[in-house]
Automatic annotation (TrEMBL):
Gene3D superfamilies xref list: 3.40.190.80, Fructose-1,6-Bisphosphatase, subunit A, domain 1
GO biological process: inositol metabolic process; phosphatidylinositol phosphate biosynthetic process; signal transduction
Molecular function via GO: inositol monophosphate 1-phosphatase activity; metal ion binding
Record bears the keyword Hydrolase: yes
Catalytic activity annotation: a myo-inositol phosphate + H2O = myo-inositol + phosphate
UniProtKB keywords: Hydrolase, Magnesium, Metal-binding
Necessary cofactors: Mg(2+)
Domain of life: Bacteria
EC number: 3.1.3.25
Source taxonomy: Bacteria, Bacillati, Chloroflexota, Anaerolineae, Anaerolineales
Family statement drawn from the similarity comment of this UniProt entry: Belongs to the inositol monophosphatase superfamily.
Positions contributing to Mg(2+) binding: E66, D82, L84, D85, D210
Protein name: Inositol-1-monophosphatase
Amino acid sequence: MTSPTLAGIEKLARNAGAILHTGYNKNHQIDYKGAIDLVTEVDRQSEEYLIQAILKEFPDHYILAEESGIVDGNDEHIWYLDPLDGTVNYAHHIPIFCVSIAYAHKRTMKFAAVYDPMRDEMFTAERDRGAWLNGEGLQISGTSELERSLLVTGFPYDMWDTPNDNLAEFGRFTKLTQGVRRLGSAALDLCYVGTGRFDGYWERSLKAWDAAAGGLVAEEAGAKVTNLDGGPSYISSPQSIIAAPPILHEKMMAVINKV
Ligand code: IPD
Ligand code: CA
Ligand code: CA
């Protein structure tokens, strides 16, 4: 029985990315999963391709996929699939989105691939071996001061109704840093921390498939990635995440704890 490889996962991400690229800028069939949470036919096409391709090679593996939910199997092997991260951008013809795939063996995230087909940027990571952008090793930024940092965040789909809407944190960091961006793709936000484009990232209420692959990329590039209580799990519920160089992570946590 063969095991998953980083090269195999990269290939899946590239093929799914081609589906997103082909569908980009077309008129989409949009369905609403919530008031502001939408899905297009291309999310579903990308996910269908990924699930079929994984099951063809690994028929007994467990898959957690955004649009289909759980494909039951042996949970020593778990796949986390976000077939299109940045759906709202995609539906509005904004070219900031990606496909995000992570594979965990016996509960340890092992491989990750996040592919941005518009820029042909392939972010990959392997636990304890490193993180790469198109094959070049990644390293986080050396920024340790909030006033020198550029941050990124996102907001939950239930933000119309929840007091936990991240706006107070957003406002506070906006007055302490060079700025806070909101790109609309959690997986790319995390990979951009891995490249050093952003110095830090935080968000609440993501799902496992949003954070699994990008989290490994950021970690392997040197970021400290935790939940907002400082604990190591950032994919299980109640989900929250912060990723930054260790010194900046500490400073960001202090701000968040005060808000
Ligand atoms: C969303 C994006 C966004 C984040 C949301 C996610 P989707 O994923 O990653 O940046 O703020 O919380 O749900 O719906 O585009 O796959
Ligand atoms: Ca997502
Ligand atoms: Ca998605």
